[in-house]
Amino acid sequence: MAKILVTGGTGFIGSHTIVDLIxxxxxxxxxxxxxxxxxxxxxxxxxxxxxxIKNYTVDLKNFDETRAVFQENTDIDGIIHFAAYKAVxxxxxxxxxxxxxxxxxxxxxxxxxxxxxxxxxVFSSSCTVYGNPDVIPVTENTAIKPAESPYGAxxxxxxxxxxxxxxxxxxxxxxxxxFNPVGAHPSCLIGELPVGKPQNLxxxxxxxxxxxxxxxxxxxxxxPTKDGSCVRDYIHVSDIAHAHTLAIQYLMDGKNETKCDVFxxxxxxxxxxLEAIHTFEEVSNLxxxxxxxxxxxxxxxxxxxxxxxAVTKLGWKIKYGIKEMMDTAWKWELKLKQExxxxxxx
Length: 346
Ligand code: WQD
Known about the structure:
Layout: E1 3-7, H1 12-23, E2 27-31, H2 40-49, E3 54-56, H3 63-72, E4 78-81, H4 88-93, H5 95-116, E5 120-126, H6 150-168, E6 172-178, E7 180-182, H7 201-210, E8 216-219, E9 231-232, E10 234-236, H8 237-252, E11 260-265, E12 271-272, H9 273-284, E13 290-293, H10 308-314, H11 322-345
Parallel strand pairs: 1-2, 1-4, 2-3, 4-5, 5-6, 6-11, 7-10, 8-13
Antiparallel strand pairs: 9-12
């Protein structure tokens, strides 16, 4: 049974990917320092898969502690690296925190990959590497423009570091450029758990709808788009998760064309902020309390994917549409409230 190390394994995409890896016959261990997550995800993974995941509570910025994980696990067949900060707006306000966390963590990890000869490495990259694209949909060969945020810059630099590393290391790598991962596992046992006030659109919608937030703000409605609000390519987190399993298998089967293959992970459908809100209102049968506010620094105007490469080369088949994304996100928020109420009432 192949063994995969997932960094950021208790995070949103990491936890869903661990479920998918286990369901596809992989053994999984995790590194996560719970900076942006909780142990709730580990119990959810266990409930879904029946497997108890070993998580090493290690900060990748601590090289010695990171290296110790590899000394204890010398049989790692592949790594999927999620662990990073990922809020666009926050990165504009705290650039050094983002550069330190995302870059130091990656470089420490790659030093261990090199020392311990890990053969396969999948990187959690992002559509933010494209900056504000001139032409959409973007393909993997679309020109990389200046990042609109320090978060996007850490992903651009991360890709350069990995590409250069792959030229000298006995490691095959893949860069997965996610668009906007949203929704929750159909079981509602794992989902997005933003720590603090949600930065991303969908948790902001569901937390407003459930009453955790009094209202939400639409960051700008004067963009040159179909309805003035920003356009994104929202993709269900379970579809994103399965693409990671396919990427690892693609590398282990030796199908990679280069030592650093790149894939867009998006649906190819551009959805505006207002369209996303209206879809949520339709599936939840609720009226959302939102207000149009000023633009948010760091926001890209519009972006969505050409996903042909992932579909044809990885064999990726997208299962969920925007309605299921909103429906599972809402059901997850309802589940969280139900559990919170039970704790209060017991
Ligand atoms: C989407 C749109 C906001 C909150 C995300 C991830 C990033 C990367 C790319 C994976 C923007 C608007 C949001 C709110 C709003 N994914 N919005 N009100 O910035 O596209 O980045 O996808 O790597 O990691 O963060 O996503 O959900 O923050 O914003 O109007 O309360 O929703 O302005 O136009 P973003 P987001």
